Amino acid sequence: MATAYPGTPSTEILEALAAYGAADLHVEWSVNEKVALETAIAGSYSGLRTATIMKQVGLNVALDPLMSLAYTGVVGGLLIVVADDPGPHSSQTEQDTRALAMAAGIPVLDPATPEESREMVDLGFRLSEKYGIPVILRPVLRVCHSRTAIQTPVSRPESGPAEFCKDPDRWAATPKHRYTLHGELNKKIRAIASDPLSLGTYKNLIVDGARPSFGIVASGVPAAYAADVIRRRGLDDRLKLISVGLPFPLNPEKISSMLRGVETILVLEETGPVMETVLAGYLNVSGRLDGAIPSEGEMTPDLVDIVIRKLPGASRTSIEVAGAQDYFHRAEKEDAGSPPILCAGCSHRSSFWALKQAMPGGIYTGDIGCYTLGIALGAVDTVLCMGASISQAAGFFWAYGQSDGPMPAIAAVIGDSTFCHAGIPALVNAVQQGAAFVLLVLDNGTTAMTGGQPTPGTGMLAGGGNGKHVPLEGIVTGCGVSELWITDPLDYKVMVDDIRAAADVAAGGEMAVVICRSPCVLMIDDRQGAVPVIDLDACNGCRICTDRFGCPAIVWGSCGPVIIADQCPGCGICLHVCAPGAIRLEVDA
To answer: Do 54 and 7 belong to one domain?
Structure first.
């Protein structure tokens, strides 16, 4: 069994399992990470090998069952694949899953390469089944988005029939029994730290006859970077490099023995000082805690190169090596790049433009998805986490409601997949408490930001089969909302009227929901309509179409705005954006 919720950089893992198409493998996109983990746990309780997959912020959602699972343990091997995003590149945080694993008491494997990831899948299941404990596999973005030739296993282990053996003292343990289970967990962790399977992940990557005075302990991708730098710089005889594949539970005595005679040790890891904190009680270590390495940001090959060459005696040249902190901040400025934008013809752009026209000057709470990019249109004021748009809108309603000032117009914006993921409890709470604001549910029929995975509203399953269609409007009315509009964002004028009507209802003290339904433009094979043209004689040069509306199919040329025909899907929303009416459809005589 394999379950997941899509999120970069983890999405392709379940997609690959679905494409594999094994008849005896249940593969599903769950509505959120908590549900995904809980479903997989039941599979493990039944004796099956199971896996659940998510990105690092998804582990926050699954943390409640995760913490309890560490106590109860498992029967069939359970691998929790959590893809971290140092940087971050596509996440709210660059949190370190190893730290959460440490808090939960769950072993975590940290692969440096795709090949190590494959090897650690097998190792993770073996440790899980040997100790009856879930194991986390933590590939970071650079591992998830790498490609290499790997050795494939000769055969896939056979899975026996599902059989759940009832044991209420374990599976339904009361607080009294949880104390006992906690003690058993602690014994497992101590045993795993010294198990030959675990110690086999401690590797001396640089083998040389010399006895260097400096050593490096690295985990994950930084270990691969460090090995490359040491070999490329010819420092094999000056530095010793130990790669640790199981950073928790760590065995500091084993590392101490491998680094016997080494005076100073640099710890390379992403993103927090997990190993460094433990090793500081045993060895003279340097790393993030003392500022030798920046406390935030991705560890790049160039950064590792600079940090290693700054070690006393490591550099063979008199070239001054810039400090790691200086490098990081300089690289951050140089790598600003272009901001992400909504696709040409994206219905979300129309929804945001209509929202601003219908509820000008309002407070717009946003959420996680493609529509986060509404920030560029001035239609997103807050982005916290999945589902927070609705809760924050309710919070603003109550905050202003208890003050003496006027109540502003308040609108929450959330996508269809995110609404099912985390928005439903927030809507139930807002309705039950009597909050009144406008909720826009942007329903494009897919989880677009992560590559177009199906949502409950589509009725499609991970493997491409048909499941049960769960209509959003039924969920909304089931939450107690009586004022509901379903509108097409590409029918712009009607949509503006619908949002205004919803705003009037909210101003009267009722919750109002507008479902903005139009398929994702990336899922449409044919062009939607004719490509508009721009009458440069009528254009007043306001640049609203390029600078504020931000459609990538409209660019500012040498003579004014130009529509790039092969990028324009013909949605026609730009016709409503141009105040002087310079954008129009050509009509044949």
So the answer is: yes
Q: Contact at 8 Å (CB) between 263 and 213?
A: yes
Q: Are 441 and 393 in contact (CB under 8 A)?
A: no
Distance CA 85, CA 378 (A): 27
φ, ψ of residue 48 to 5 degrees: the values are: -90, 150
For residue 213, the model assigns a pLDDT of 74
Mapped to the 3 state alphabet, what secondary structure does 19-72 carry? HHCCCCCCEEECCCHHHHHHHHHHHHHCCCCEEEEEEHHHHHHCHHHHHHHHHH
Tell me the pLDDT tens digit for each residue of 169-207: 899 988 989 999 999 999 999 999 999 999 999 999 876
What token pair was written down for 11? 């999405």
In a domain, 174, yes or no: yes
pLDDT tens digits, residue range 478-509? 999 999 999 999 999 999 999 999 999 999 99
Distance CA 435, CA 247 (A): 47
- Residues 457 and 580 both lie in one domain: no
Tally of domains in the chain: 4
Global confidence as pTM: 0.88
Angle at alpha carbon of residue 437, lines to 435 and 439, rounded to 5°: 115
Residue 284 · residue 263 · CB < 8 Å: yes
What is the separation of C-alpha 147 from the centre of its chain, rounded to a whole number of angstroms?
20
**Separation between Cα atoms, residue 468 and residue 474, nearest integer Å:** 13
d(CA 6, CA 31): 9
CA distance 76 to 332: 45
Q: List the one residue out of 27, 25, 105, 33 whose CA is nearest residue 63.
A: 33
What whole-number distance in Å separates Cα of residue 170 and Cα of residue 476? 38
Residue 342: inside a domain, yes or no? no
Tell me, yes or no, whether 44 and 186 share the same domain.
yes
Q: Which among 523, 556, 574 is the end of a domain?
A: 523
In a domain, residue 49? The reply is yes
Asked if the structure places residue 589 within a domain, the reply is no
Domain hosting 206: range is 201-334
Round to the nearest angstrom and report the end-to-end CA distance of the chain: 62
Work out the burial of residue 404: count CB atoms within 10 Å of its CB; fewer than 13 is exposed, 13-18 middle, 19 or more buried: exposed
Q: What is the pLDDT of residues 227-240, one digit of tens each?
A: 999 989 888 888 89
Which residues are paired to 84 by β-bridges? 140
